[in-house]
Amino acid sequence: MTATRTGVRLAHNPVLPGFHPDPSMIRVNGEFVVATSTFQWFPGVTLHRSTDLVTWEPLPHPLTRRAQLDLRGVPDSGGVWAPGLSYVDGVFHLVYTNMLGYNVDGFYDSPNFHVQATSPHGPWTDPAPLHARGFDPSMFHHEGRSWLLSMQWDHRPGRQRFSGILLQEFDRDTRTLRGDAEVIFTGTELGLTEGPHLLHHDGWFYLVVAEGGTSWQHAVTVARSRALTGPYEPDPAGPMLTSAGHEGLELRKAGHGSLVRDERDRWFLAHLAARPVDAAGHCVLGRETAIQRVEWVDGWPRVAGGVPATSVVVPDDYPEQPAMTFDEQWQTVRRAPDPSWLSRSERLGAVRLRADQSPASRHDVSLFARRQRSFTDELAVVVEAEPVHFQQMAGLIHYYDSALWHWLQLTHDERVGRCLTVLSCDHGTLVDPLAGAVIPWPHDGPVRMRATVDGTELRFAAARLDGSWQPVGPLLDTRLLSDEYAARTAVAGSTGTAVEGFTGAFLGVCATDLTGRRMVCDVLDAL
Description:
This protein is mainly beta. It has two domains: 17-314, Glycosyl hydrolase domain, family 43 (Tachylectin-2, Chain A, 5 Propeller), CATH 2.115.10; 331-523, Sandwich (Jelly Rolls). The protein is 1% helix and 49% strand. The chain has one helix and 43 strands. The strands form ten sheets. Strands 4, 27, 30, 32, 33, 34, 35, 36 and 42 form a nine-stranded antiparallel β-sheet that branches. Strands 28-29-43-31-37-38-39 form a seven-stranded antiparallel β-sheet, with no helix packed on it. Strand 13 (138-142) and strand 14 (145-153) form a beta hairpin. The radius of gyration is 24 Å and the shape is globular. The two termini are 46 Å apart. Residues 489-498 have low confidence and may be disordered.
């Protein structure tokens, strides 16, 4: 006789802390699998699995080859936008945008692609090209047929940029689109309608979309229709979920959700949210993934109160996901790791970097990093490099994008030789927190380096292998590495260029050599 479980099991939000936005969640063979955006970070798309919605295990990234994802030169917060994960007839399908360029008053170059695999562990196929009409693709499978959805971008001056949700049939055998694309929903008064997901339930087609823009007015809207192509009528009760107008909530920016149900017809919503680090609303951790319980009321899926909860009761009959040591999921920026610049085997017990372009580059940066996942975080490594010129530098970096970072460097100065210094980048402008000073570091061999984050403050420190830590530079402001600080609009004549922040803070190691000598930097304690 099987004992009945009666304990209460809670999932604490965000279930995927740190930069994990735009979740697309499915349930297959008793497991939840969720895909999230990676933007300019490589490999592309993060996948996590869970049996109980409480503990989540990272899965291998699907897009691991340059043939699947070419990120060189993409703008900050370009690259992989809002992947859509689905499953049908034994096959996992993944569609994604590789955003190559975007301008608020012009074109969005947003080619979309499809890959597939028979297991979420891969291997995933080479990509099949789809369309570039808009971004945020997803797939819908129903009665043996499949469709691709996305938002549609209208570049024409004077038009509504977010011009509706597109639907077009997809042939799974040939992995091609067929027929014409059709606008099935133009959104509500919240505007900025994007992030579509479609499902069928009790004779209705339900369209779940993100609205209000991916910031403080963000929301999840649900509309339904008896026919696949519409017309779709939105829930008269308003957004299914939003944080707008609820300034006291811990989880803000709630929106961009996907619905999933289990075998006992229990429903959940995966959505993005953000946690400000200060009263001014700076979200250094970026947009994170949370889940909510969903109940059906009068034929509509509803979240209690329409606001995100920080703790959610989940079924206690789910098998527990075993606890695990967290996999840091180190990533690189814009370039695939290969032995020409990154090696885990060339020196035993070390990651070897060959220094390349600066962290301000959008091409060949020798940088690997992992997400900052909490308001307090720390990364300590041992770095070995021998810079002989001021244009050679290596060390710990707190990185948001090519225009926003703090960098503790082991470098060279003509006055003292080998030394330590700090360099910051504020919207592309280099800042010297030490006001021209450097810390002589004549000691041969490796340097211990440490970055400690505490809320809005970052402290760098260094030490010899047999010595104690000493601070390097003043306390630095982590709020520079937030979506809010990154977002701005630069106006040149009559053209406005959207420069927005969609990622989050990373901690890692960067090595730069502008002399052409490709200085070697060994990281002895990181992976």
